[in-house]
Amino acid sequence: MTETVTPLSKTVSQIVRSRTCGCRDFYIAKITQNDATGYVAGTPVKLARAIKAKVDEKWTSEKIYSDDGTEEVINSYEGTEVELEVNALAPQDRQILFGQLYENGFLIKTADDKAPEVAVGWRERKLNGKYDFKWLYAGKFAEGISEEASTKEGKLSPTTKSIKGSFYERSLDNAYEISVDESNLVKENTKAAEAIKSWFSKVQEKNDAAA
Known about the structure:
This protein is mostly beta strands and about 210 residues long. The chain has helices at about 90-100, 190-195, and strands at about 20-35, 40, 45, 50-65, 70-85, 100-105, 105-110, 120-125, 130-140, 145, 160-170, 175-180. Strands 1, 2, 3, 4, 5, 8, 9, 10, 11 and 12 form a 10-stranded antiparallel sheet that branches. The longest helix is centred in the middle third of the chain and has 8 residues, at about 90-100. The N and C termini lie far apart (about 55 Å). The relative contact order is 0.20.
């Protein structure tokens, strides 16, 4: 009796883990509908040149006890805090991000400005040359902007801008993020492979490949 040995490659897909070494292409899309009946985002527009993205996904855990022990642990998604550092912001960017008025060349900021609901997307470069593509579905950059300027001291000292926002799950299905790690795509992942070809043409959905 002979034993049949199945090669490992036929049963286990290779998982690729590569460090992040870059960040680029910040895009913003205004949300026009976000309720239990539907989610609609407008055409994405490119933001300023990307320098850094800091994403802090927050979860809380609560233990339920019975019979002198842990019966269950309940995890709850609390939201995602986002800080984007960019090279500069134009008045048009501030209008989209913070709801400020830009008219006839004037940028007007008021205490009544309300940041619109937006989706934000970008891609992160891996050491292997592939990218991790991301969209956060819903949030607001209502925490404003951090910026500074300093006098020229013998040489130029360029500054950057940082914008902070809070993102959360959308009402339609509680989804809050969609991403595609290019390093781990396999032959069968045809829709994901098609989507990353024009990732920023729209806010992506799992069952809808990019046009």
